[in-house]
Amino acid sequence: MKDFKKNIKTLIFGLFLTLIIAGCKSDGEEIEQPEKIYYDQAQARMSSGNYFGAIESLEAIDTRYPFGKYAEQAQIELIYAHFMNTETEAAHSAAEKFIRLHPRHPNIDYAYFMKGLSSYTRDRDLLIRFTDTDISNRDVSGAKASFAELTEFITRFPDSQYVSYAKQRNIYLRNLIAKSELSAADYYLTIDAHVGAIRRANYVIENIPNSSENYRALKILEESYEALGYTELLEDVRQVLSSNYLGKESNQTSRTREWSWNFLDRPDKKDE
Asked: pTM here?
């Protein structure tokens, strides 16, 4: 009888210990959820502006259901979520991954567009948007990469709904790159390095012909040619100025029209 009671106590203690261990284990592990729940959760989080949480849900789909019903849509929405969460490098990487995995997807144009857009977005910073900070004096290597990628997008998908936005963005980038080149030219003028100034100004005229900075570039050439005594070249530049910029004020503003970000939207969500 004593052995029986002892065995009962041992059994009860063992069951109790098992329940405690199971409870601790369940608290430490994330409960597996169906793919649809993750997707709906991501949509709700994005709708409320919780892009960090949306990224978490979309990545769960990508990791746990790589061949599921919502896998491709989750991958393309990750591009958008990362971008809106100001994780532009992650957005660029997500776009490249999507392009590599789904080159014939119906929304592949969106991936190319967002890839180019994500390459250069530092001008969205509050310090730049709401102050007089001149971003043309900053590193524009990202702007050049973005311009090239958006140009590729426009070439590949001329009928895409995002082309007009890409063209608008490229106008801004083109002017920004030209300004950067001429900022260096202005510096060369201050130290009488006129050959360097000429090189920068000519680069703008020859390689960025439709920028807002052509007049400024020509004025730099005029000043440098005059300083160096290049009479014939000076006369040529003055002829171009008189023919194309008659009466134009030399103190033109260096500002460009602000870029609007209101167009951004995700591609159509997957039908339920």
From this structure: 0.72
